[in-house]
Amino acid sequence: MENNKNIALVVGATGITGSNLANELISQGWTAYGISRNPNNNIEGLISVKADLLNIESLENALENIAPTHVFFTTWMRNDTEEENIRVNSALVRNLLNVLSPKKSIQHVALVTGLKHYLGPFEAYAKEGKLPETPLREEQPRLPLPNFYYAQEDEVYAAADRDGFSWSIHRPHTVIGYAVGNAMNLGTTLAVYASICKETGRKFIWPGSSAQWNGISDVTDARILAKQLVWASTTESAKNTAFNITNGDIFRWKWLWYRLAAYFGVEAVGFENEIRPLEKEMQNDQEIWSKIVEKYELKEVNIERLSSAWHTDLDLGRPLEVMTDMTNSRKAGFREFQNTEESFFDLFKKLKEEKIIP
């Protein structure tokens, strides 16, 4: 049953976060629009909107007859420098909210960022003496460093002051979920890597640091992130608050790595004295992947649309353990929980069903 009181506009509806959010909204009876430059909508019930977020005229034309009550920013555009990240990613937030402002329809805006809010870029926390204290807490102040997350937040705050809507900020840690063509996809990257290892007899080698291998960690299932986004946008006690969001359990990679290897039937190798980047390990695997795709009649031959080894290396190569505190949402009543091992196994099952991996 359609809920015409809640009309969502999802920015980035084809990504891991956005697609899972769209499914959650639709399952709860919302009217859901997904906006992107190149709509590729395979979500039943989602209404696709084609627009360039950096082009005001394009946005005005696309949104002429759309008056959303809730806006969800779930994507960003990667650039070569943080200065460009700030310029581009603040503009996409500002442009959309400016175009929607005259409609006076927005009740709530939710912005998804991440743990770089606390960590900064890799160069910042990789230097000795600058490691942040963990668990990462929502109350921790901004770092004195350029960060496009801060710029995006400031655009949301400014528009909220102008137009009177409420807001929420959501900071996941390593989102695990199904999507193809996403630039930051650790779960699918590891699934592709393990599939190649199984086919070739290679070992499933841990690519990260000693601190990540031995330390405590957590991750965020895209489905639990979606639930928090909807909850925060419709719960009075959650308004105008920043929330960390993870599955709710913790683990060590030195335990989970062997569980993932066992799922695929490959031999795992743990940390052995040095970081062995996955980007280097997989740099010549396109030809192998093409043969796997042909052999098992899979759908996606371009390994770069599935594997983002560079991002997995950044996550797993951190020189510190990383886990987050979820005090803000727990105190406000958010009680959802997701087992992390099942997050990975559910994803792997979905990838097999969709003929993405053998």
TrEMBL record:
Cited InterPro entries: NAD(P)-bd_dom_sf, PRISE-like_Rossmann-fold
PRISE-like Rossmann-fold domain mapped to chain residues: 69-358
Family matches, as SUPFAM superfamilies: NAD(P)-binding Rossmann-fold domains (SSF51735)
Organism superkingdom: Bacteria
Designated name of the protein: SDR family oxidoreductase
Natural source organism: Chryseobacterium kimseyorum
Lineage summary: Bacteria, Pseudomonadati, Bacteroidota, Flavobacteriia, Flavobacteriales
